[in-house]
Amino acid sequence: MLQRLQIAPQGPEFSRLVMGYWRLMEWGMSPQQRVTFIEQHLESGITTTDHADIYGGYQCEAAFGEALRLQPSLRQRLELVTKCGIATTANPGHAIGHYITESRHILHSAENSLRYFHTDYLDLLLIHRPDPLMDADEIAEAFLALHQSGKVKHFGVSNFTPAQFSLLQSRLPFTLATNQLEISPLHQPAILDGSLDQCQQLRIRPMAWSCLGGGQLFTAAQYQPLRDELTAVMAETGADNIEQVVWAWVMRLPSQPLPIIGSGKIARVRSALRATQIVLTRQQWFRIRKAALGYDVP
Ligand code: NAP
Q1: Among this protein's residues, is 55 annotated catalytic?
Q2: Which terminus of the chain is less hemmed in, N or C, by CB atoms within 10 Å?
Q3: pLDDT digit string (tens) for 7-58?
Q4: What is the count of structural domains for the chain?
Q5: Burial code of 3-27, b = ≥16 C-beta within 10 A, e = fewer?
Q6: Bridge partners (DSSP) listed for residue 50
Q7: Cα–ligand 1 centroid distance for 261 (angstroms)
Q8: 47 within a domain of the structure (yes/no)
Q9: Which residue, 200, 248, 227, 240, is CA-closest to 291?
Q10: How confident is the model at residue 228 (pLDDT cuts 50, 70, 90)?
Q11: pLDDT band at residue 152, thresholds of 50, 70 and 90?
């Protein structure tokens, strides 16, 4: 069965792999098909689901919630992670895309998420991106109110620098549970900019988004050397495909990131499970790093 991890001291317990619902509206599923898809990944042990208020032009949470309304028993088998703090022009009220981390907005967005999901609590609420105008005291005020009312169990951030993380943490009486970051061979900054070191220091597991570069891994000409190296490591490790090697590469990091799977195809989601059994050697890990970056370690 798929491993479960407590993602932070006093934090929630999540499945080792997380199902991402950013692309839900692209999958063309009926509400009943969404129920089936959720049941299928639950059966493989993937219980944690990742969402955001803005996904699918503000439609994904409600579409997922429709499935929870059709099959209410699913809620207690799932962890719901969602985010707020970005305002996109998909909302006609926004003339320009911007960030919004005022207390009132966070409370309002969390209430909307609860309503769309047909639930009375969220497992984890994240601030989606750092906001140049963010006032840590205001975010803390909203987090405390949501915590005290029991509407949100745990809180975290996404795409925060270590300094931004520490700033917000300094205003809170409880530990931020995660920093959700882009981590992949195709995008390696978090590996050396201090973000993952901070997670390791605080014993917080990051959540890793777009591990396959949003599908670019398979299509972009520039990643041919990476695909070649992944194919070689695939043969050495007995993996079934190169994406398993990528997820194993992400999970090899000592901060123990939780990869978020972005595919709407259940066979691809199930295939990810195998990656948890693959442990790359140091040299295999560095060969993949080099093939992606195009240069060796100094
Ligand atoms: P990803 O795994 O990098 O990319 C998923 C895409 O790759 C899908 O379009 C999928 O298509 C395609 N794909 C997967 N396997 C493939 C294969 N073998 N061949 C060809 N195409 C393949 O993940 P992502 O969707 O970009 O991100 C994952 C999750 O991270 C999102 O759902 C969201 O929850 C989260 N996220 C968070 C942030 C943030 O700022 N916090 C940003 C972006 C994403 P199919 O559906 O056809 O398989």
Answers
A1: yes
A2: C
A3: 999 999 999 999 999 999 999 999 999 999 999 999 999 999 999 999 999 9
A4: 1
A5: eeeebbeebbebbbbbbbbbebeee
A6: 20, 81
A7: 6
A8: yes
A9: 227
A10: very high
A11: very high
| 171 inside domain | yes
- Packed helices 242-251 and 266-273: angle between N→C axes, nearest 10 degrees: 50
Does residue 202 lie in a domain region? no
DSSP state of 88: -
- Give nearest CA residue, ligand 1 atom 37: 209
Atom of ligand 1 nearest to the CA of 216: 7
Please name the helix (run of DSSP H) or strand (run of DSSP E) that holds residue 86, with its range, or none. Answer: strand 86-87
Instruction: Say if strands 48-50 and 18-20 run parallel, antiparallel, or are unpaired.
Output: parallel
CATH of the domain at 97: 3.20.20.100
Q: Which residues line ligand 1 (CB under 6 A)?
A: 20-23, 50, 128, 158-159, 180, 209-215, 218, 243, 260, 262-265, 268
Domain that holds residue 79: 4-177
